[in-house]
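Page 37, top half.
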Amino acid sequence: MEAYPNAKVLLTVRDPEKWYDSAIETIWSWRCTEQHWAARVFENGRKFQAQAQAFHKATMLPGVKRSDREGSIKSFNAWIERVKSTVPPEKLLIYDVKEGWEPLCKFLNKPIPDEEFPYINDKEQMKNELNKILLICYIAQFLRLVAVLGGVWLLVWLLRMLV
């Protein structure tokens, strides 16, 4: 709030148990961890990992690992309380997307759209997107291996031709 004193803050909330279940199956899954080699193949994967690590460090209580359900849920709730205690109430909207457009538009002084509130980014959709990214990473690694082996084969073939 110091950097942007006039900013409005939107704090999205949801059931902590469901949040943890979703996170552990999607963004915290083995496919997205810093230990997974495929996530390091592309620059975007490395950026995602750096962002995920920074988010984890900023929002989780010290020493809490992703696999610690109870600690993660305590961290989730502590983060909400931290935001509430930091942001003046008149600049804060505590918002559950299930509430739809009305509270969001009212908070932002915008008209309520005629269209239905979009619901995207569900757990299954996120898992499918992560699987697509992982497949691309595997294909890229395979193509790198093929290129290296092809280069070695070509070098050996050329050397045999010269001898």
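Page 37, bottom half:
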Amino acid sequence: MRSVWLLALAASGCRAILGIGDPPALGDGGFVSCEGWHPEGFDPCALTITTDKLALGGAAYTYDTSVAGGTLYDAAHQAVVTSDQMIMQSDGSAVAVLAVGELTTAAGSTLAVVGPRPLLIASWSSITLDGALDAGSHLGVVDAAAHIAQTIRFGAGANQGCTGSAGHDGGPAMAGGSGGGGGGSFQAAGGGGGQGGIDAVAGGAAGAVAAIAILHGGCPGGSSGAAGSVARPPASAGSRALGGAGGGAIRLVAHDAIDVAGAVSANGAGGAGAPTRSACGGGGGGAGGYLGFEAPSVRFGAGAIVTANGGGGGGGGNTSETGGDGGDGVVGSQPAPGGAGAPSCGGLGGAGAAASRLGGATAVNASCAGGGGGGGGSSGFIVVRSPGFVPGAATVSPAAQIE
């Protein structure tokens, strides 16, 4: 599998688009030669270096791609670095670009990468990651009393380019519970949603396996079917358990070397469990996203963890009990657990994909007046382009594709 992106640079002028003119200049007045450096899909000489050396200490940071090439914020939400550079893909979508002389993250640091656009980080020397870089999506409870959960953090570029690959919604409730949502798909298919009880209301199907002709994140899980007339307050007829978002997408490209000793993840979010007294099915888990590494030397250290795992599907509920939320994709090789079904009646959510299991697990049907579980999200992609790749004894889930 070799993906090819047709890209053009935005925001730097015609000479940059054509790759004409001087190579990028560092702040000390020196120049970096781009000759012989030909990463896939873009011309590094068309980029402007935003900062010579970006060194993140042992603290929390967020990179948000919402505006142009994105902004790096510190723990106090003060802007540290801002980029105006984007690369346009062949389908018209944009990739945020951060170009640096060198990037290092210290042990104990966390860098969350969020926003609507995928992120490309290009370094004119090396990228050294000793901290945690998280481009995954995450589920959170927004109303504890009604047990309403939804994705509260979207990895950069999550849910983009997902036509046909998002999990399908479950069927609406009739006399019993509604169907669970299907899991999101990316490298493989997500798991199917479980049937709602009594009337065997259909669970949502998984989406189609997604292509990566462009850089994008994982695809979302489907929502459960609506609660309908069986709902009891605080639930209403329109209550649903929402599907989890897919993981984000980040591509790391360095002129010399990439060294990972920490954790780099782009996992899918878990699907929500059924809201209180709704008899809904669970939401489907989101698919894992995309992690790309490209340099002459790429090394994953013995303690490194690199993951693009799927989220677990939510559990089905009934008219007196909630369903459990599915787990977010795990930073490790274990599958994210599906949410527990309501104790007296409700289907178990399917586990998210991890390690050698690329597809999400199918959820459990409800055999009584409850909702079916949501299907698990599939694995995303980890792609390494390097003639000098050293995987070491790192935890890599799913297995990296070497190009």
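Margin note: Residues 50-402 form one domain.
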